[in-house]
Amino acid sequence: MDERINIRLFDGFEIKKGDKPILENLSGTRKTKLFVAYLLVNRDRPISHQELFELLWSGEDYANPATALRTLLYRFRSMIENEKAEALYGAIISRRGTYQWNKDLDVSIDALDFQALAEAGVNPTISASRRKEYLVKAIGMYRGTLLPDFSTEPWLIAKSAAYRDMYVEAVMSYIEILKDEDQYAKVVQVCENALALAGTSEILELEAQIARLAIANPDAVSKSSVVAYYNEVRELSVKLQDEADRMQSELQDETIEQQAFLCDYRTFKELYNLQRRMQSRSKSTIFLGLVHIRCEETENSDPLYEEKTMNDIVGIWQRMLRVGDAICRKADTTIAIMFPAESYEDAVGVLERLKSSGRERTDDEVVIVYRVRPLKGGR
């Protein structure tokens, strides 16, 4: 009997040993489940403790994040030992300051297997028969949303969308092969199944409509206005996809670091009003923090003491805040910060941590006072 470990990420999260589900207790521990799922989806790179901590405990105050992460790893390894799933021993590699899913582990992961088959199936350099074989397997493996329990997590939305696009591309390649074989009834079936799984797609809807016309009257298809419309839509779709790729390359700053966005006050104001608009359409709450710092100078003080202190504190806080937060110097001794938080208490906790870090890195002569409040709605 095949005892290989199979991991399902499409339409759920399940780990099987052969045909038997294992590690079912994972579903009852959301943080441990999210911890493992995140490492699986991002298996090609080591994940820092800070990144994992922000994912799992965003807005919560923990004195020792590394200990909290080790607890999750211990729970997962205990589940593996209890199930005697030897193939998963060493599944998560712990290195200095990072965790990573072991890429060399001999396990089957449906999303990765699907991707390999889909990429082979759309490869024009291999025969149509081989491509058809790969595409049938790939299409059969796709089962919809990636990790639906975490579908609202921002990090997962792009991943899930990429797999959805890959699936539609595989379906379109398969349809072209079926059309060459005059299998129009099969085309209709494939389109209907794909629409049920992937949602609205004008191209797939038109493919199904043309296939139905071909079944009813093959000679009438070439004269149908639907075909002309289809050709125009497909041509424009390809051009728009290329333009979107180019635009994303132009807009995307590859030098973005994993820290808050440091900007001037004018830019901060524009971000503030953009966040107000976005907040009115989402459940998240954005907070504005305003911090005043007073430096007590003495006769022997460096004349640039205040400026050096402010620059030092801004740099420290920029690194402590998250990549989506914004920070600026509103005035010589005033710093403005914008960040999301689950509650007012969590927002206060963020400012308290920043205040403590500022005091620790300067001296007792520095006074730090802050106020924090939610952004006013954009409606």
Tell me about this structure.
By secondary structure, the protein is an alpha+beta fold. It has 3 domains: 5-107, Arc Repressor Mutant, subunit A, CATH 1.10.10.10; 110-251, no CATH class; 261-374, Reverse transcriptase/Diguanylate cyclase domain (Alpha-Beta Plaits, 2-Layer Sandwich), CATH 3.30.70. The protein has 12 helices and 12 strands. It has helices at residues 30-41, 49-57, 65-83, 110-121, 128-141, 154-180, 184-198, 202-216, 225-251, 265-279, 305-320, 344-360, and strands at residues 5-8, 14-17, 20-22, 47-48, 92-95, 98-101, 107-109, 261-262, 285-295, 326-331, 334-341, 366-374. A 5-stranded mixed beta sheet has the order 8-10-11-9-12, with helices on both faces. The protein has a 4-stranded mixed beta sheet with strand order 3-2-1-7. It has a 3-stranded antiparallel beta sheet with strand order 4-6-5. It is globular and about 90 Å long.
Keywords:
379 residues, alpha+beta, Arc Repressor Mutant, subunit A, Alpha-Beta Plaits, 3 domains, 12 helices, 52% helix, globular
